[in-house]
Amino acid sequence: MKFGIIKERKNPPDRRVVFSPQKLKEFQEQFPKAILKVESSDIRVFSDDSYKSEGIQVSEKMDDCDVLFGVKEVPVDNLIPNKKYFFFSHTIKKQPYNRDLLNAILDKKIELFDHETIVKENGARLIGFGRYAGIVGAYNGFRAIGLKSGAFQLPKAEILDSQQELIEQLQKIELSNIKILLTGNGKVAYGAKEMLDAMNILEVTTEEYLNNTYQEPVYCLADVLDYNKRKDGKVIDNSDFYNHPEKYESNFMRFAKVTDFFIAGHFYGDGAPYLFTREDAKSADFNIKFVADISCDIDGPVASTIRPSTIAEPIYGYNPRTETEVNFKDDNAIVVMAVDNLPCELPKDASEGFGEMFLENVIPAFFNNDKDGVLERAKMTENGKLTERFSYLQDYVDGRE
Questions:
Q1: Architecture of domain 2-127+348-397
Q2: Residue 340 labelled as part of a binding site
Q3: GO terms for molecular function, please (predicted)?
């Protein structure tokens, strides 16, 4: 079987890749029957020569490959019929801007495996860049604090080479006794936590965070039942919240009263209560001054996130009184960092980590008859039709919704 790494063609350019040269070499060593090939690219974080030096063929033509790996959406004109493709298609939530892409995939009888659909039997994702979003998001949040306060200056993450370089920059800054709230319990939150821990910021319990004052910066890692409560007062468990979000209401304001810097690393599920609303942000008790919204749900659970920001212009201000965007240096502004493609700022580390996950969780399935069902669960299209698992997308494909 021949596997190919395709060139990223989406704009703005994405320098990430599914496999680094080193990981591709490991792939070859573990599965010697595999034939590997890399499409030439002038934007990839790893040069063509770095693949060639590992003995990997680099080519302009990928038509002879059976399986093609990319990161972002492949432009319709570049899709090769009758191939297996892996990339983030951004179609599983019926995103209207990619309906034509999914139709083209069906027309060309492509088997599509979306990175987001590569899951365990219990639905937990096996592949993703979440950790790197957390790493960069936390860094960008501290950079925003420096830009607003003038107390320190941090370089942009995109000009630094690795997580270690981000950490070294953060270790140079001095913070006042701010309180930092980090929400979430997945890869994003733990990526951000790595950065807080590397800065030697003291982690405290929820109760300590809410009730104590400190002479140094501290942070608290809060999960869904810390900032949501059942309307009937019962305390059950996380799965009850995930299964019955309508029975809950936000309890976030108790955190907002004492928090200076909020890092949103949670996953927001449909039907769950908003963490804080625009009205909440108007309250005299609302103390949050900086928001690094890594989850980046627009006009949703984090009211100050009214639009995504960009790597070029990563921060903006939100005036809670007027509910409008203002200059982040405005005295009344909540400073918002809401870049929606954070891992792009750390392409080398993100690519190396992604390849590691892929080699461990996906590639073996091609050589063991997919004994764990990873490929079967992930496959969205086959023979010009949606697979049963993704048949819910039919109305979307047909333009009926």
A1: 3-Layer(aba) Sandwich (3.40)
A2: no
A3: saccharopine dehydrogenase (NAD+, L-lysine-forming) activity
